[in-house]
Amino acid sequence: MTKTAVVILNWNGRKFLEDFLPSVTAHSTAAGTEIWVADNGSTDDSVSFLKQNYPQVRTLLFDKNYGFTGGYNKALQQIEAKYFVLLNSDVEVTANWLEPMVDFMDSNPDVAACMPKLLSYHNRTSFEYAGAAGGFIDKYGFPFCRGRIIGFVENDNGQYNDVRDIFWATGACMFVRSSVYNSLGGLDSDFFAHMEEIDLCWRMKNQGHRIVVIPKSVVYHVGGGTLPNNNPRKLFLNYRNNLFMLYKNLPAKAFHRTLIKRMLFDGLSVGMYLMQFNFRFAWAVPRAHFDFYRNLKNLRQKREKLQQVRTVEYHNERYKRSIVIDYYLRRKKVFSDLMRE
User: Are 45 and 179 part of one and the same domain?
Assistant: First the structure.
């Protein structure tokens, strides 16, 4: 069995492959490492580019776009390795990026997933929005990171260079123990894209596994490559998938308490978008709630199964306050300020 499989999911990303695959092939030469590209039904010349320029990279070709979740699940079902590395196509890796992660997981069998330090490709002294130096979540389900709270992104001055447990690892570059990934059924394909990695990490933590950030490994992420941040479809997926995730992973009573507050926060978001005359964004939020209720029967079945195998109720990495209130009203924009309280 291969020890480490670096798996890049591609969809019409020939330019990203051209720009970033050289760093992956150059810096992923450790023994027992394979590089894979799983193509999600691209209609550009990604596949021909790979065959002509990277014959050493193994490929899986799908008939259509199965999204981030479905694409990775289909790919990883066909790959045998001790560790999977889910790597976005718009990530530049650096020398020695693999070894610290693999060594740590070898030495810590209770760690199910880990991530490197994620810096911005375009501003290389700044953390990158999608993961920074490790992911956390607040009491109402809003995610944030060491180095990025809502819209405020810190510069990397070495302030988060310690190895520590986190709540979630970024899907832009996530190392996952294949045995745990497979036992949990992988990513939830109903998510399609966005927040699927947080849901997976929460399921891992509910079964007593650890998630860790290892900042000795550094990668640079473009971000927003296939679905830009100003896309109402992305907003819809984020709001809907967040509700999916909360319903699946919280005990029933805790979810109902949380939902009441979430409806208030989400209603405020709608009001904000309306005041900005951004009607497509405003409609994306209630549409997300409608779609959540439409999927409730399926979600209930998933939750019942997950709650039966849950072994851990309390997670130290779940922030006990509202990050929204702390950010907007209490002006807490730096992760280290949150942790002093």
Answer: yes
